[in-house]
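Figure S4 source data
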Amino acid sequence: MAFLAKFRKVDLVRLAEEMGLEITSEDRVIDICKTIKNSPDYEEEFAKGQLDVISQERETERAYELEKLKITSAAETASLNSTRSEGSRNRREIKHLMQKFDSQNTDISLYLTLFERQARAAGIEEEEWVSQLISLLPLDLAQIIIKESKEQMREYTNVKKVLLDRFKMKPETFRIKFTQHQRKQGDLWKDLVFELQNYLDGWIEGLNVTDFKGLKALMIADQLKRRVPNEVKDHFLDEWGELIDPLVLAGKLDQYESVRGHRKINPVRMAERKPLDRARPNSPRKEHPAKNAEKTEHQFGKLSAPKGNWRNEKFERRTQPACYLCHSTSHLRPNCPQLNKSKELVNRVGLSEQAQDLFAPYLSKALVNNDEMDILRNTGASIDIVSRNHIRPEHFTGEVVYVKQPLDAEFRCLPLAKVDLQSPEFGCVVTKAAVIDAQLDSGWYLLSNKTYQLILEAKRKPTLNAVV
């Protein structure tokens, strides 16, 4: 009976059922063991073998249930990830957030920085950056990336390096841009800060500077390079951009000066030139042989005697220019009054003397931020235009807009400002306007189609007259 106590209650209950014994749920293990032991069909060897089989079946069934749970859980997780991936793929397409890259007018380093920021803001995983970037590149640049191996194409850092190498954006190029880049006319100072920060990051990352100690050494080496003469710099031109350790650079410069100091400089003597005795053709005067001798002595370092006064000789005087028609010296032929000039009519676009007369049907008066101005209706504009003279610093919203004129090939970035338009005709309308430089102020507020619709809606609102 002692071996029966080693098995679990469920195994003993099943053994009792196999032997045809009645067991209740209230029976204890010891009661079940006594019932089995007192059974007339009890045999110890049979009981041991049967309990081993029951225990193995229970373990097998338990392992099967665990494996089934694992498979079910993995299938549910994969289905959930697939659903999220499909939803995010439909939702996150960066080509809808950025313009395609223009190799003629856009800096590749600035474009890649903007791409990385937009991708992080949109929640795009870094594994998808390469495929998203290829959709924004022209065909020639996409072919360069496709020529790389599959392993390198999967890593965004490798693709970025290939593009920077294609446009020769080496660390030395970033350094030159960082030190010499200037703000473009019309750009904000914040734009300059972003560009300088991008060039500095490209310079530092290209040289693998990762800590403050390396940055400090790089700055000292850069200042040291600025003090090196050009003839010495030309000697290290092949490795000049890679010398970022100031001690290594100083050692090379000291070694160069040491080698140059022991060199013997052999001065090269110029051969003495013999005077050439050549006659000048059509010379107005003939020199005396004595004067030739004086000139020869002067060439060998001796002072020559004063020359004769040849200015007293008589030469042919210069004739005064005269008109070919009337032979008058007071004017020339193009200005001669006797010349019959045909007056031709040239087609040109005429301009009115007063632009106010042309724009009068489209002009109105209103208060722009409490300043009275002429409002000019511009049916071809999608955003209002106002001069900086009528905008105070607190009116700026911090937003920008890219504006393109019909005669301009490039977009221009302009800041946005809040504008309050007040007029007895429509009341008060709050809108936004692009701000131009003060020097471009024409005295007009250009009203766009969007604001005009707001004014029409303000006019449609019913007015209630109070009854006293």
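Figure S5 source data
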Amino acid sequence: MSQILQILQPIQRGLEYIVIFLYNHVIANYGIVIILLTIIVRIVLIPLTISQTRSMAKMQKIQPELKELQKKYKDDKQKLQQETMEFYKKNNVNPLAGCLPLLLQMPVFFALFQALRTPSEIVTNVLGGFNLNGVVNGIRIGLMTFLPNLDYKEFFKVFLARGPANHNYNFLWLNLNEPDRFFILVILMAATMFFSMKMTTTDAKQSKILYMMPLVFGVISYTLPSGILLYWVTTNAWSIGQQWLVNRLVKKEKVKKELSQESASLTGGSELSEEDKKLIRRKLKKKRKKKR
């Protein structure tokens, strides 16, 4: 466990510096700082999310053929494994590619968990990274003549951090150091997790997980500090919005492709009028409704 924490420490320290910077130079409210930090992290992870979405789309596309393979070699597990790997290679699909972005996000989450664990600890952690004695002694040598009675080390700490007691940990009805006593964030976390998972779950077999995961995390999270839950809710809300946009773009691309194929079959490749395109769109819409 200590080795994992050592690996995460540089990420945690970086996040703590971002929190301090946002608090001191953008807005002196830890609730808004946590939301801004979450958005920054999610923006950085956009390339991984795009990779994950593409991998999921590829896996979904080849599912019917995979099921055929499973039926064909259901009595020979070794052969099934061999044929499945060959099938993935042939179709240029990596089954772990969809999981990789999620795995890479875990260190960030744990580092955020540590960084947001107690906002009052962040200043102490960050200041702990400096060699305060060396800095203070240097200042003392330069200023000793003018201010002989000043406690420079204490002054330097207050100058940099203004003391944890002066920091604003309140956000709306929350104290970010403590659990949400009204359980509103717990409910929001579970609800946003459910909708986020529902938008990305296509396999009917995963429906149990869809209902169990938010429930389990809801029970676990009611004792967590509100700052952690605020990060979680913001992350889930971002995921919902992002997935909605991705689904919309994918649907638009799919309709465009179907329209092109339908046009080619009707006209042999010649240009269609706008009226003809509208008629084809209506026809495709009716087809999709029948499939449902």
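The mean pLDDT is 69. The first helix runs from residue 2 to 25.
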